[in-house]
Structures are given as structure tokens and as C-alpha cells.
Design a protein that fits this description.
This protein has 159 residues and is of the alpha+beta class. The chain contains four helices and nine strands; from the N terminus they run H-E-E-E-E-H-E-H-H-E-E-E-E. The structure holds flavin mononucleotide.
């Protein structure tokens, strides 16, 4: 073991990563998508997920205004959408229109469930914690969706 730069240590432990998408409602009109790696289950009963969102993300603005999010697990067909949603901001583009992403409205707050998704969890924010330059939003799952016709998650695929 030797002491090193933070970036060198990060590079070593970063991969493989699992990713998901988070759909939120924009402060004015419509919906936004963000690619996230920092998410986790935090409770079995009630079922809960936490997501960590950077303060400069448009998603942060959305969640401060509307206290719901859909945690979406992408199928392999959604690889491009994940790349797009992780490198463009909803401040500049309408990600659903730009990528022609088809979805159905969820039951909780009508937030989008992409039809190509493997699974989705509709969450209501119950608490939040500031964590440096991110906010951890903790949401209780109100409705769960699964798409039996889809392949496993991207990171589970054998290559
Ligand atoms: C693989 C990947 C994982 C990411 N994980 C997160 C994350 O967990 N939290 C976060 O705030 N941003 C994360 N980002 C960055 C956002 O997805 C990116 O800044 C996005 O453009 C923000 O969109 P928004 O401004 O519409 O919210 C990730 C990006 C990629 C490509």
C-alpha cells in the first residue's frame, strides 16, 4: 500500500459500475432524465431507494420543486439514452423529445416509465441529506414496474 492522489485511487475502484436513469418533473412543464451511478436500496419495509444528485444538475432543481422520482433500470436497448442523459442537461435540451423516448405515465405522479425499460420504481421523496456538492434524496417506493420481455441489465450481460 502507498499513499496516492485521490484521482488515482478513484480510477482504480471506479469500474465496473451499475447505472440507472432517474425521471423527474421539470419545474415548469414536462419531464427530465438523468443517468445516475450513485443510487442504492436503503430499506426493505417500507421499500426505499436513495439517489445522490449534484447541486448543479437540472434534476436537482426538479426535485426541489416536485418531490417525486422514477428510478428506471435500463435495458440494453437504452444504452444510447443513458449516454445522452448522462452528458446533456435538461437546462439545455428536452431529453425525451431529442431521443424520441417512448413512455407510459406512471401511477404516482404520472412521471414517465420508458417502455423499453427493464424495471422502474415510482418513489416519493421522504427525506434528503446534503452530502458535499450533492444531495442524497431518499424516496419511498409507491409502485413497481417490471418488463418481463426484456434482457437483464447492461452490466449483467455476458460479453
Ligand atoms: C455513467 C454516469 C453516471 C452518473 N452518475 C451521476 C450521479 O449518480 N449523480 C449525479 O448527480 N450525476 C451523475 N452523472 C452526471 C449526470 O448524468 C449529468 O451531469 C447529466 O447531464 C445531468 O443532467 P441534468 O442537468 O438534466 O440533471 C452521471 C453521468 C454518467 C455518464
Amino acid at each position: 500500500m502507498k499513499i496516492t492522489e485521490l484521482s488515482t485511487a478513484y480510477a482504480k475502484v471506479h469500474l465496473p459500475a451499475k447505472i440507472a436513469l432517474v425521471a423527474t418533473q421539470k419545474p415548469d412543464n414536462g419531464y427530465n432524465l438523468i443517468t445516475v451511478e450513485w443510487f442504492m436500496r436503503t430499506s426493505i419495509q417500507p421499500p426505499m431507494f436513495a439517489i445522490s444528485i449534484g447541486h448543479n444538475r437540472f434534476t436537482h432543481e426538479c426535485l426541489e420543486e416536485h418531490r417525486f422520482f422514477n428510478l428506471i433500470f435500463p435495458s440494453v436497448e437504452m444504452k444510447q439514452l443513458c449516454a445522452f442523459s448522462g452528458s446533456n442537461s435538461g437546462k439545455d435540451v428536452d431529453k425525451f423529445a431529442e431521443t424520441d423516448t417512448k413512455y407510459i405515465p406512471g401511477k404516482l405522479n404520472k412521471l414517465p416509465i420508458p417502455t423499453e425499460a427493464l424495471a422502474a420504481f415510482e418513489c416519493e421523496v421522504t427525506s434528503q441529506i446534503r452530502s458535499g456538492d450533492h444531495t442524497i434524496y431518499i424516496g419511498e417506493v409507491k409502485y413497481s414496474w417490471v418488463n418481463a420481455a426484456k434482457e437483464p441489465l447492461i452490466y449483467q450481460r455476458k460479453v
